[in-house]
Design a protein that fits this description.
Chain lengths: 100, 456
Amino acid sequence: MSTITPQQVKHIANLANIPVTEGEVTDLADAFEETLDVVANLQSVDTSKVEPTHQVTGLENVLREDVVDEAHMFTQAEALANAKETHEGFIVVPIIIDQE
Amino acid sequence: MLETKTLKEVLDLLESGEITLAEVHKDLHTAISEKNDSLNVYLTVNNAEASPSTAALKGIPIAVKDNYCTKGIRTTASSTVLDTFIPQYDSTVIAKLKAAGGSVLGKTNLDAWAHGSSTETSQYGRTLNPRNPEHLPGGSSGGSAAAVAADMAIAALGTETAGSIRQPAAWCGIVGLKPTYGRCSRYGVVPMASSTDSPGPMTKTVEDAAILLTHIAGHDKYDGTTGDQPVPDFTKAIDKPIKGMKIGYVYHDIEGLEDGNKILAEQLKTFEKLGATVEKVDALDPHYAISVYTVVQRGEVSSNLGRFDGIRYGNDRSHFGDEAKRRIMLGTYTLSKGYADQYYNTAQKVRSLYIKDYEELFKKFDVLVSLTSPGYAKKVGATDGAAMFGELEDMLLEPSSLSGLPGINVPCYRDEETNLFLGMNIVAPMWQEEKMIQVADAFEKATPWNTWRNRK
């Protein structure tokens, strides 16, 4: 049995920038435990002689020329079209620097 | 009644001039307005009149899962985070569809962010299964599957990460084709697990899937994971005899699947009548794939969904639903310092074992078959309190998805009492979709289970 504490859930929520309520913390801890118990069977597989797979079709280091692709550019109006808050052609972002 | 036709039939009727595109448009929109309130298939309908085209698809409107960016048409991924998001560009698959003469009929419901196998986690309400509305359509491409099954579309596009095309296709009694990873571009598709996400067609017949796949596949400079393998005309695999082909029957002795396997074993005799051989063969236990997929998918989700911050587009992160929260946070946990080796790296190693297992199996067999889903479509509400619902439903599809292999669902049985379907999953080696199309088409034409081919 895996055990996940409410403190761990809150810590993870903070890392993932997900707002959670006290009630959700309990539910999430339960759901985490259920899921971690299911995936525990991975530890019983002998993987000592295998390499991990990250890319299934074997592509490596796919690069492109660093050139401007005009067919693929937004106009300023398009770039701003979905932003909630804009100011003189810029997107307004939240302050993340401590002001004190 | 043109909405009840297959893509091939509509193409032929347009070609001969017996019908016009305007008639197709009108019939589809009539069907949608009659059925959408009760089934909740489309989140957005594109009312713009389709323009006739001289290109291959002749202007025919196609239903599109609402996680493909469509220029000027709202794209939500069934999450209120993207409630007001109007993409300023088309995803590559949609651009290819349009270049081939197709158009967008509307945007179909899905599990929010494609996280699920029921369409119950959509923040815009669940979709119902048109075959029997007391049941779920499956998911995550449940809206696209339901659109096809309900004749609210001629054909549709879905996406699959591990089951999201084939499982809803099975539950709705239609054809769903998940191509090789990298065959169709992921560019402009709302990302889920980038190492397995695969766009693909969901259609009334195998031939229709082959037609659509031919037009949406191919290398894309905007998606570095697409392959540069040439794209064949997949319709060449239609009406091709399967005599002499070797078919391996996997997952035939999994506990809990006895009822489904009894039916499938009977249906597999069709292949023998057509001159192919069917042999039961053991494959690596799919139960480990549930774990591999859960860990890999949650990890990739936590990173992919980090971009949704409500600044450049969409709403802020408080809008994520319960399922997305669970997945993002579990992925954050399993990737965090001290746990990544235990979970993520181990999962990626077990993933290698599945790839090796398939390599061995394909030395002996042309294709592998199994049930698509453990059983029939579950009842509405089945996901309540079941954190692992989707993973368990998709168990038989996860090994091939994690290995990047192509697979196709064809209906292989219909229960007369409930009008629900069982599906057969046919998996082919990487980049060899033709083989599974050939086998699926032969089965479809030799059996009574395809609703459109065997209309009364």
